[in-house]
Task: inverse folding
């Protein structure tokens, strides 16, 4: 099992490769930069953005697993933060909603992704959308800044999910909220699956149990925790056969294990009554 530093380096390398490729190359390969199979893996997880107002095809790398901006209850004039902003897809959709009076901040820890997102924003001439390089375990934003936080299929890549949700709580304004799409599990994946999943940039390898995921949100101090959407992710046999025997595939199909995409909404209370330590000390 890799340690947290090695996992982050693996993800950063993978997404740096994807950011350097033309969009058509990403979408024509199930594994993006690796080009490891014939079935389009991204289409298995991703929802269609192309009909949404504010959509920009140059920013859509097909890396998501939901439509969090559509569920996030964003209002005109809001400040929105997109965690794991990639080439800017969700940020630009959010900008359409917040309008010229609002602000959108994208955070990504892959330099090439940030460069690509900034280039897209410049082409669109958006002066109220910015992209910052940073780790979402230590969000480079001041406390109580955001009205809304969104994220699309990113937290499953992060080793310390407790720290991320603690940071989300810190950065949200009192009374603010988030809508996050992510991959979770029901039932246990075999150990071999977790190793193979690294080929898909951690979309499954870093996923945890759905009940644990929702529990972490609750422990972080959020209220009004609501599951807004759920869909099962079906991995085609064409992909499974590249890595598993027919016996292993049949065992998986007969098991109660399910890979799911969920979209979750939660609010930061208007008054923090957790009675824990001072913000920034890391113990909450």
Result:
């Amino acid at each position: 099992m890799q340690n947290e530093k090695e996992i982050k380096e693996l993800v950063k390398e993978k997404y740096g490769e994807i950011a350097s490729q033309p969009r058509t190359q990403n979408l024509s390969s199930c594994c993006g930069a690796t080009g490891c199979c014939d079935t389009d893996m991204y289409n298995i997880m991703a929802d269609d953005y192309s009909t949404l107002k504010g959509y920009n095809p140059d920013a859509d790398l097909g890396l998501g697993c939901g439509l969090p901006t559509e569920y996030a209850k964003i209002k005109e004039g809001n400040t929105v933060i997109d965690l794991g902003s990639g080439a800017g897809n969700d940020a630009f959709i959010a900008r359409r909603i917040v309008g010229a009076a609002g602000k959108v901040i994208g955070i990504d820890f892959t330099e090439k992704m940030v460069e690509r997102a900034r280039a897209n924003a410049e082409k669109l001439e958006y002066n109220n959308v910015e992209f910052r390089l940073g780790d979402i375990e230590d969000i480079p934003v001041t406390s109580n800044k955001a009205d809304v936080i969104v994220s699309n299929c990113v937290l499953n890549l992060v080793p310390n999910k407790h720290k991320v949700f603690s940071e989300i709580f810190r950065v949200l304004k009192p009374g603010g909220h988030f809508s996050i799409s992510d991959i979770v599990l029901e039932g246990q994946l075999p150990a071999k699956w977790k190793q193979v999943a690294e080929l898909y940039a951690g979309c499954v390898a870093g996923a945890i149990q759905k009940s644990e995921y929702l529990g972490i949100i609750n422990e972080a101090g959020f209220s009004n925790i609501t599951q807004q959407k759920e869909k099962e992710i079906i991995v085609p046999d064409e992909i499974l056969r590249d890595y598993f025997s027919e016996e292993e595939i049949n065992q998986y199909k007969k098991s109660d294990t399910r890979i799911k995409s969920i979209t979750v909404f939660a609010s930061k209370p208007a008054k923090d009554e957790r009675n824990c330590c001072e913000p920034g000390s890391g113990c909450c």
Notes: Residues 27-43 have pLDDT under 50 and may be disordered. The domain at 4-267 is CATH 3.40.50.150 (Rossmann fold).
